Amino acid sequence: MHYLLLTHKIDGGGLQAVVRAQAEVLVEAGHDVTVICNKENGLVSSSIFDVKHISFHTWAGRKQLKKLFGSLADFRVLAHSFDAYWAMFWFRRYKDRSYYFVHVDYYSMYYKSSKWLKNFERTFNYKLLFNGKNVAFVSKGAEASMLNKIGIRPKRTAVIYPPIDLSKIKALSKVELKLDLPEVFYISLGRLAERKNVALTIKAFAKVRENNESLVIVGDGQEQETLKELVNKLGINSQVLFVGWQDNPYPIIKRAQALVMSSNSEGFGLNIVEALSLGVPVVSTDAPSGPREILEPDYADCLSKVNDLDDLVNKLSLLKTSRNQPRFSVSGLKEHVQKFDSKYALAELLKFTE
Length: 354
What we know:
seven-stranded parallel β-sheet, Rossmann fold, three-stranded parallel β-sheet, globular, 17% strand, alpha/beta, 15 helices, single chain
């Protein structure tokens, strides 16, 4: 089987990391894989799978896709981004070979903060793209939101978690650190965007910090300068370190006291699984749709209300007093996320696309 993974770009974390991981596990399972990116400067080379650039929304690009589809006897298209969804809209003859992967909870991300006319337009587009199609969701919460709140009606659905290679994360965590990090620190990891609400993590840290504790913020984005201004305003410059985007954040995660995630919405919460797999506890907002799905049942008390500073502070304080409990042992934390190992995601993916 030849799998064609269509996406906006594959450089970076989040969705891009999921696409790369999906390509890798499919190759390891013996399949041919080509990742096709709409954004020319969003490519990364790979020795494992083929990567190429095709502009999805140009006539020349559509001709290239048509020629590629026609040249393959047995193939599946896995569309991972909105430009990829729209690209496949023009190839409805291949809809039974096409699979749409939804990585976020669109309702929680957009609908509550938008006017009704914009939400009407979004609903129209989602139904146009997904009704009657094969749609995979990154979490049960994202699936329920799209089906029950937005009202899409796919032909088939599945929940397929991101393929997370736990053994690879363990190996990468042993790479020598080239950063000069504090001895004791909490970590915030991810894109510095409004939806991630890293400001809440900073405010909570300011309230619970001890003199010997720091907060390391890994990631970059449009909110970076605003967050630095907040740190300065709170007078905690000496205890907050911005280290930017890291290709391999795992040695940093492994040394952290805890991962703190304060998103307003999530599709899954990949960073939570990564931290737990390294034996690092997590405190997260109960953001739709992934964190609760990952942390329950053993660590449900590590979930705080969304955008609630006092509750996040309470959960961080509770973690400090609970660290000696057996469930917070390194082995206990690692055991909790074994169900998210890539072999299970691969099995679900192959079952859905057979």
